[in-house]
Amino acid sequence: MSITYQGSNNRMSQVTIHRDTVYLAGQVATDASADMRSQTEQILTGIDALLAEAGTAKDHLLSATIWVTDLSEFNEMNAAWDAWVAPGRPPVRACVEAKLAKPEWKVEIMVVAALPGA
Predict the structure, then answer these.
(1) In sequence order, what DSSP letters do the residues of the chain get, joined into one string?
(2) d(CA 85, CA 83)
């Protein structure tokens, strides 16, 4: 059984690939001073890059888990998500309100995707 780890440090990997499935760690914004929509857009751009490195793309998403710090900003996060998700190919998704590891982060997103041809 082959497992590939990418972007690893002592604590975690950004990407793990097992068989035909790609698992991404929770992703957060690089500019945490941005508003909810901008943080979400930053994260989704990063997810695109990580999926590409792993050999897949957002049109192969299987699931997404989204944590937001304030559900009153849910619509702003969804505006960025809806503009990004592949038309006709939305993954299953859960979104919950939660306290994140750093108070300046407003949103964290974790996805699972299939490799093409899987």
Answers:
(1) --EEEEEE-SS-EEEEEETTEEEEPPB--S-TTS-HHHHHHHHHHHHHHHHHHHT--GGGEEEEEEEES-GGGHHHHHHHHHHHSPTT-PPEEEEEE---SSTT--EEEEEEEEPTT-
(2) 6
- Please tell me the pTM assigned to this model: 0.95
Out of 3.30.565.10, 3.40.50.150, 3.40.910.10, 3.30.1330.40, which CATH number does the structure's domain 3-114 have? 3.30.1330.40
Q: What is the structure's pLDDT at 77?
A: 98
Q: How much of the chain, in percent, has pLDDT values that exceed 90? A: 97
Q: What are the residue ranges spanned by the domains of the chain?
A: 3-114
Inter-helix orientation angle 74-84/36-54, to 10°: 30
Q: What number of CA atoms fall less than 13 Å from residue 67's CA on the CB side? A: 15
55: left (phi over 0), alpha (psi -120 to 50) or beta: left
